[in-house]
Amino acid sequence: MIRSRQGCRPKRSALSLLRFFIVAVVLSISVVRPGRAQQVAKYGADFLAGGVGARALGMGGAFVAIADDANAGYWNPAGLQEVSYPQVSYMHAERFSGVVSFDYLGLAWPLSAKSTIGVSFYRSGVNDIKNTLDAWDAERDQPKPNPQDHITTFSAADYAFFFGYGRSISDKLSLGVTGKIIRRTIGDFADAWGYSFDVGLQYRTKTWLLGVNVQDVSTMLQSWTVNDAVLTNIRDVFGDDMPRGGTEIVLPVLRLGGGYIVHYTESRLLIGLDLDVAFDGQQANAMNVGDTSFHPRLGGEFSYKDVVALRAGFSRIQKTSSDGWDVTPSVGAGFKLKQVEFDYGFGDFAGLVSDLGFSHRISVAFTFANSKYRRPEGE
User: Fold this and answer.
1) Does residue 2 sit within a domain?
2) Measured over all CA atoms, what is the biggest interatomic distance in the chain, rounded to whole angstroms?
3) How far apart are CA 86 and CA 25, in angstroms?
4) Could you read off the pLDDT of 219-253 as tens digits, one per residue?
5) Is position 1 within any domain?
6) Are the C-beta atoms of 168 and 78 separated by less than 8 Å?
7) For a FRET experiment, which of 2, 81, 160, 246 has its CA 20 to 30 Å from that of 34?
8) Nearest one of 6, 104, 116 to 55, comparing CA atoms
């Protein structure tokens, strides 16, 4: 896609947007401090950390600089600007031998030659969890008669809604912002609301791709509420003092990405390398310097005639004190038929998570490739 760069006014506007991006990132990260009633949650948004899109996950999640479809609202909202037509994408994934299910729906829609919006919805959950609290007789300290009659089930589910906006600030540089609303529930026991936003940049040439996405740049605030009636029941059974809710914060993560493209006559080789820099004190099973941890990802894609593709990558590369170096590979494949694209990704078959089962990711995307929906050209 060729975007106009004529005139002085667009150049000044591009510089102003770029300065705003840099200042916003620096100020947001520097001024945030946990309050007295708040605590840092090291894994407070891990249900989103797995990523979206079977194509990206087949490449090990090395997608920050590469993101160019309806899934860009997650990986890097600046990549929304690479969508030429409206596109909708759906992914279903299962982890831990099907115990945890994950569903994602994303939409990207070009508004003008220089701007695109994207919306995404996520659900990750464990269903049919057994609740045995009512089957226990606390006074007699033993199960009630016919305990199976008192056993119920509940679900623990996490939801997220993303609203993204991407904008071109030159023919090679794009800026994006994603606002996020989080809803978390643990049956009738507890629930939480959270919110934050991400900001990203992408720089693209025919050969090189560079990207940065600051995830939860303002920190993500999660406010937990516990059901008092259920809390009393738990205390009666276990005799423990249970928490009564509170506010957790998820600190920003700096996600850096690079990509390199090798063009052949009818095929293309794409290589991606990402590095996540987290500041929340993760030290177990992570490369770290003090409270700063580093999480690299590496992946590649070979496509033929933009119809079929094979992918492979490493979604986690880490060094542990007990096992030494440990990697988690992933593989995938894709097939494109006119406006429809099917992708499959498979992972978690090596490394520390191999004992917990495999992960299967299936995606389908539809592009509304009609001339009346095409992104306008010009300013």
Assistant:
1) no
2) 83
3) 29
4) 888 888 877 666 666 665 555 555 566 788 888 89
5) no
6) no
7) 160
8) 104
